[in-house]
Amino acid sequence: MKIKSLLLLGVLLVSFQQVFGQLTVSVGTLTPQQMVQNVLVGNGVQVFNITFSGDPNQIGTFNSNGSNIALPSGIVMSSGDVATLVPTGNPSTDYNGAGDADILATAQSVTTNPQAGFINSTNDAAILEFDFIPQGDSVKFNFVFGSEEYTTWINTQYNDAFGFYLSGPNPAGGNYTSTNLALVPNTTLPITISTIHPGLNSQYYIGTPVGHSFNGITTPLGIAFAVSCGQVYHFKFAVADCVDGILDTGVFLEGASFTSDAVDVTVATVSGDTTIVEGCTDANFIFTRPLSQISDTLIVNYTIGGDAIMGTDYNNLINPITFLPGEDTVIINLSPVQDGLNEGFESVTITVELINACGDTIFSSGTIYIGDGPILNITETNPTVLCASDSVLISATASGGYAPYTYQWSYANQTGDTAYVPILQNGTVDVYVTATDQCGFTGTDTVTVTMNQTLAIDTMAMVNTNFCANTGVVWGLAVGQTGQPQFNWSGPSPSSAFTIDASVMQNLPAGMYVFTITDDVCSVTDSIQVGTDPGPIADFTSSLSSGCDPLDVTFTNLSQNATSYSWNFGNGNTANVNDLSTQNQTYSSDATIMLVAYAGVCSDTIYGAVDISICGCMDPIALNYNPLATVDDGSCVFPTPTVSAPNVFTPNGDGSNQVFELTTTNAVKIDLIISNRWGNKMVEKSGLGSSISWDGTVNGMPASEGVYFYQYTVYGVQGDELKGHGFVQLIR
């Protein structure tokens, strides 16, 4: 069918995915001619008359390695040294090179730059030119623009620029004459740092350098332009500094993207080559058409060749394929069938035959090869060890199938082609390893570890240490040794590790001792605990711990693990005994008692005390008061009260015998009542001494002479009472 060959001149946005890495640049490995023919140009274009002007270091090849340049590889040109575009570089090389008139005109034409009129020169121009003849009615390629001028020198006279200049017949009429194709998408603005930046057309700007040293770059952009099939065209890639020669600017041209072809068939596989595996990987046949045809519906028939059978060796493929308007790519998937047969490699070839705008017949084809599912072989080690080990290295190596391989070990879920396994006694240990290739095919084998150890520790024994002295003993005996064994002990004493010429260690404290025997072949280890024999524990009780002088005390010996005892009773008496007999002592003063319990060279000591007190009456009013007593023993004897009374008193004012008063001893209080002979109460008083005397008056009036009756109660110091009565004669 006839292909419509109408394509608008402009720049197309190329989709991409950012995967961060580091840019690499190669300078001098290819000539400019080789770069154009082998790197830049793809299908449908014949190139010739290739030239480059500028410093040789201003052009090279690149690999984006996942940096956010986002084009996989291609040619890079710069107004400076392209080798400085790697992450550690400083892209600001001034070669004092010549400029370019086309680039100067481009820079001066940027209407968005208010300083464009001040751009009066260009420097360090890098210019790649060639002639080409297209086989189709359009040409396309992809690129990324970047600059160290970002973003400080936007809209200044230092507006570094570049251009893609085309000359030749224009299918729309007339000719292209150094026509700059590097325009901002959907505009007539040349691409510079002043037309794509954060403030203008920012959708095409990337301001964070990842994996390269330019301060800013554009997203990947595509150029597509209409041509006449079979005609000769001239193309010029150029980039230069403006006004000065520093802070470089560059352009990255995607490899194999300069194309002019009809429908193209390519093959994509997971492995990146043309081979897929039954039951493992699929392949994609990718049909692409020129962007000049993208507005039409295009139906493409293709032929299927090769020795693989569709429907038997792989799935049924759709034929023909249809490009709908807006589609430039159609993908069909080929999935091989796992049939379990050993058929070797079988091929599938898809070929498209079309007539291009020149009237030439163009064939485009892609071939893939289908391989059988493999048998994985594993070569493993089977080590023999002469000593027990918790970490024996084993290994396995897979072959066959499709590398790389992963490994899974049955012990401890270890992965990798090596693992560590324990073997702690004579015999064998089997470990399984499963290798898996990238297609999921597996193989399993057994690794056998053998232990053949003759050296062993036959006996470990010990004698406990005395708790108060380092008397412990340990010893070990070896069998099966080769050569003269060396004995090594480690424990709490005399150091953390020590070596001796014998298997016995003595004069040791308690603790865990590790015994190692090393012969000419192997080393074995065992351990033993040295305990502590119980020591003597001195203990006693006393029947009394305090009392009055003299005090009889009985001591009961409660000591343990002892064979003899030494007493010091603190009263001048001592005793050395070999049994737990009780001891009786008498104390008249305070004393400290000491008991020492012995068991061989070890001893334990305990102390006690007896407190002796002076006992007696501590009440000063008692008849038997003892001022030296410290403990009142309840022996106080108190005096009883006495009373005497006059039988006559004469209150006549002569100064003698004027009052009636009781005379008492040992009294603390007296209650007194005086009555007349008719029983009338004259006086009632309570107190002591003169406070209860009677002066012979009643209510301030002299009482009449006569006999009066009195009665009293006298209270003693202990609360005892003495009651009495009598008669007294009042005479005036």
List the helices and strands and how they pair.
Elements: E1 10-13, E2 24-26, H1 32-40, E3 45-53, E4 59-63, E5 73-78, H2 101-108, E6 122-134, E7 138-147, E8 161-169, E9 175-180, E10 205-206, E11 216-218, E12 221-226, E13 233-242, E14 249-254, E15 264-269, E16 275-277, E17 283-288, E18 298-300, E19 302-305, E20 321-323, E21 329-334, E22 346-355, E23 361-371, E24 377-380, E25 384-385, E26 389-399, E27 406-409, E28 418-423, E29 427-436, E30 442-451, E31 456-463, E32 465-466, E33 472-479, E34 486-490, E35 498-500, E36 504-508, E37 511-518, E38 523-530, E39 532-533, E40 540-542, E41 546-548, E42 551-557, E43 564-568, E44 574-577, E45 583-587, E46 591-599, E47 602-613, E48 615-616, E49 631-632, E50 642-644, E51 648-649, E52 663-665, E53 667-675, E54 681-687, E55 697-698, E56 701-702, E57 706-716, E58 721-730
Parallel strand pairs: 16-23, 25-30, 32-39, 41-47, 48-49, 51-58
Antiparallel strand pairs: 1-12, 2-4, 3-6, 4-5, 5-14, 6-13, 7-11, 7-12, 7-14, 8-9, 8-13, 10-11, 15-17, 17-21, 18-20, 19-22, 22-23, 24-26, 26-28, 27-29, 29-30, 31-33, 33-36, 34-35, 34-37, 37-38, 40-42, 42-45, 43-44, 43-46, 46-47, 50-52, 53-54, 53-57, 55-56, 57-58
What does this entry show, briefly?
With 732 residues, the chain is mostly beta strands.
Q: Using the CA coordinates, give the radius of gyration.
A: 62 Å
The number of domains: 6
Q: How many helices does DSSP assign?
A: 2
Gross morphology: elongated
Relative helix content: under 10%
Q: Hey, roughly how much beta strand do the residues contain? A: over 45%
Low-pLDDT ranges:
1-20
Mean pLDDT: 87
**Largest sheet properties:** 9 strands, antiparallel
The chain-level structural class is mainly beta
The strand count comes to 58
Span between termini: 179 Å
